[in-house]
């Protein structure tokens, strides 16, 4: 029987091709339970969709929830034939394609498909950049458009997204997402061909340790296989595409660790197609570290740290679903002691967010000899807050702060650029745990914190607020543990 290709399969493919395979053919009993955070995402997505639909100012045909699905599909087709202006929650199919666009909007005799998304319409948008269409959104829209074209109900590439701000973001699929990308329609055709091949068992996929694993329902199952296979994606930052380039010659971490450098490079030239000489030697060194019992991290060059005195370890928590920064946490170490400050937005409102931002900014302004963060996220968040609440601080002031002596991004300025670690990733959780630190919470993660915050805003249970603050405090302490743990480590080059 032919397996229908759906929008959610294309979405999954963008996260991880192997997920398409496992969702279709994996043993459901091997799945992990869906994480509370993913459930929250679904819930918020549905809630937001309802809000948008209730706010539509034009009449529409509501087909959401019509069962059985075949009935919904025939009513959608009838609505297209009768020229209904706007259809919500329809269902369409053509050949092996099956789509459920949130909206179908009539223009003349044709229809434009659109989706309602509880996220920003474009990715990478900033003060100086406009942002570009998201590939996974574009692929889903392209599937709807493909069906409409087959039905003779669409031409060209026009589709749209209604984003979290309620704004309509045009997605013209005849255009490219960026100067170096092909048109979105071509990207879709390529993804569609791969998903189709997976569904017909003409293409095989393998698990790869990647960012998407954290929230994936196959994470335990895949991680066991990745470990058993000694898969190259166990090496920090190596990733699926380099793994696939290396896999035939050096299929395991051990094989790479034991490869003679002369087999990988000749002078400055790499002997591995698609991976530069310095990069392949760096990954070989990481493989070697992973395979060396009792290996310790080390510096690859000398590093000078900001002076002690008054050190701030700073970590923010944000909720992307409500676009709010709800916590600024600081561990302040001075005079031989340390203290935690957590500036918390009790409500997900601009006023509450501003208050917490003001308190955080005042603490920063009270002076420091060293300000530590882990990643560029604090800077990005502060700039966003400054744009939103310029009465607290201006964007330029935030820029200046991060240029000051004593400010150090422990991830970008240290771990990633000047160190090597015998770990599978370079997250603060992994490195601080490697150094012996334990979070108090049994489920410490940014995603969990967001879920607790949602619960807090609904239930107001003080235990939830305490949990959020303690988790954040531990994140700040973890930075201090990292800093103290790496001081005094040796400096050495790769063998
Ligand atoms: S756990 Fe990771 S590798 Fe496995 S299907 Fe999910 S995202 Fe892919």
Structure, explained:
The mean pLDDT is 95. The protein has three domains: 5-199, Lambda Exonuclease, Chain A; 230-295, DNA polymerase, domain 1, CATH 1.10.150; 310-486, Nucleotidyltransferase, domain 5, CATH 3.30.420. 43% of the residues lie in helices and 17% in strands. It is of the alpha/beta class and 495 residues long. The protein contains 18 helices and 20 strands. The chain has helices spanning 7-15, 17-25, 36-54, 69-82, 135-150, 184-199, 219-228, 239-246, 253-258, 261-264, 277-290, 350-365, 377-388, 395-401, 410-418, 428-434, 446-459, 462-486, and strands at residues 5-6, 61-62, 86-88, 92-94, 97-99, 103-107, 110-116, 122-123, 132-133, 158-162, 168-172, 265-266, 269-270, 298-299, 310-319, 324-334, 337-344, 370-373, 407-409, 419-420. A six-stranded mixed beta sheet has the order 2-3-6-7-10-11. Strands 17-16-15-18-19 form a five-stranded mixed beta sheet, sandwiched between helices. It binds iron/sulfur cluster. Residues 16, 18-19, 22, 207-208, 210, 212-213, 216, 218-219, 222 line the site of iron/sulfur cluster. The site of iron/sulfur cluster has 13 residues, from helix 2 and helix 7.
Q: Poorly predicted ranges (pLDDT <50, ≥5 residues)?
A: none
CATH domain class name of the largest domain: Alpha Beta
Largest sheet strand order: 2-3-6-7-10-11
CATH structural architecture of the largest domain: Alpha-Beta Complex
Estimate the strand proportion.
15-25%
What hetero molecules are bound to the protein chains?
iron/sulfur cluster
Q: Using only CA atoms, what is the Rg? A: 25 Å
Mean pLDDT: 95
The beta-strand count equals 20
Derived from helix and strand composition plus strand pairing, the structural class reads alpha/beta
For the termini, the CA-CA separation is: 55 Å
What's the CATH topology label of the largest domain? Lambda Exonuclease, Chain A
What is the number of helices?
18
Helical content band? 40-55%
Largest sheet: 6 strands, mixed
